[in-house]
Design brief:
Bound molecules: adenosine-5'-diphosphate, magnesium ion
Number of strands: 9
Largest sheet: 6 strands, mixed
CATH architecture: 3-Layer(aba) Sandwich
Strand content: 15-25%
Shape: globular
Number of helices: 10
Order of helices and strands: HEEEHEHEHHHEHEHEEHH
């Protein structure tokens, strides 16, 4: 414990190239109060550093604190104990440097798609200028929804709405993109398509991405590193580096290294049951 606390107090360490980490959690503990006056320990002993430009996926069973980690980074929640930093700043100071995408697109139906995308600009700085509108249009073109700028969200499919939500998260050109099961509500085909779109976007813009998903194959397909969490209390159980070549595509999923990475993560999450099931299905 003493060691963990002293680490939390230490200054961020640049990597060999002198670059500061994009995200840093040090000895995080987070408890939520319960109605009966008790508390739920959502996270305990979390140490995690994400490099600038890295794509990290968080997986683990429900309730292991994945969303809480993102909420701490977004400044929506203050940790009970420990240190959270985004680009060397507190989450409050980082503000516009962080973009958020949730499972539900949460667009406002009385605004057009373009106005929804420009909403963060309007909230922070007032009326969007021509440069903001140009940025919104570029994002819409990049995500394939340019033709829907003047439509209302209810006229769009779920996948299109989620593309709009991604544009809204990117409108202020954040350094860090936090995505909480962003494709969880989409059908399997759209979901796969969105994964490839996101990879393309990431390779063009090189944001740091922290991506929560329930899908192990999705995590392996997307990420440089998969962080496996365990519940009660939420903690990091393992980290798996995914060194599959990029750009990744449909062929990636047929790669034996892809299969072995997904299987390894399954075993880490489900333990022996997963190993037994895998053996049973190969017989
Ligand atoms: N606002 C809250 N109030 C009380 N408990 C909460 C709150 N948010 C989350 N929790 C609890 O904290 C734990 C972690 O939740 P969460 O971060 O949402 O996990 P995950 O996203 O991995 O499913 C769970 O036990 C959950 O019930
Ligand atoms: Mg969650």
């Amino acid at each position: 414990m003493r060691k963990a606390l002293s680490r939390a107090a230490s200054p961020p360490v640049p990597d060999a190239g002198g670059v500061l980490p994009a995200i840093r959690f040090g000895a995080i503990r987070h408890a939520y109060p319960t109605r009966d006056g008790g508390e739920v320990l959502a996270l305990d002993g979390i140490d995690l550093t994400v490099r600038r430009g890295e794509f990290v996926a968080l997986v683990g069973p429900s309730g292991c604190g994945k969303s809480t980690l993102l909420r701490l980074l977004a400044g929506l929640e203050k940790p009970t104990r420990g240190m959270v930093e985004v680009e060397g700043l507190t989450p409050d100071a980082a503000g516009e440097m962080v973009g958020l995408v949730f499972q539900k697109p949460t667009l406002l139906d009385w605004l057009t798609v373009e106005r929804n995308i420009l909403l963060p600009v309007r909230i922070r700085r007032g009326r969007p200028g021509p440069a903001d509108v140009a940025a919104a249009r570029q994002l819409m073109a990049m995500t394939g929804i340019a033709g829907f700028a003047q439509r209302h969200p209810s006229e769009l499919s779920g996948g299109m709405q989620q593309r709009a939500a991604i544009c809204r998260a990117l409108i202020q050109d954040p350094e860090v993109l936090l995505m909480d099961e962003p494709f969880g509500a989409l059908d399997a085909l759209t979901r796969e398509e969105m994964c490839f779109e996101l990879l393309r976007l990431w390779s063009e813009r090189r944001k740091t991405i922290l991506f929560v998903t329930h899908s192990i194959p999705e995590a392996v397909l997307l990420a440089d590193r998969v962080v496996v969490m365990a519940p009660r209390p939420g903690r990091i159980a393992a980290e798996i580096v995914v060194d599959l070549p990029r750009p990744r595509g449909l062929g990636t999923m047929a790669d034996p290294a892809f299969q072995s990475a997904t299987q390894r993560i399954r075993e880490l999450i489900y333990g022996d049951a997963a190993r037994a099931a895998a053996t049973a299905t190969t017989l």
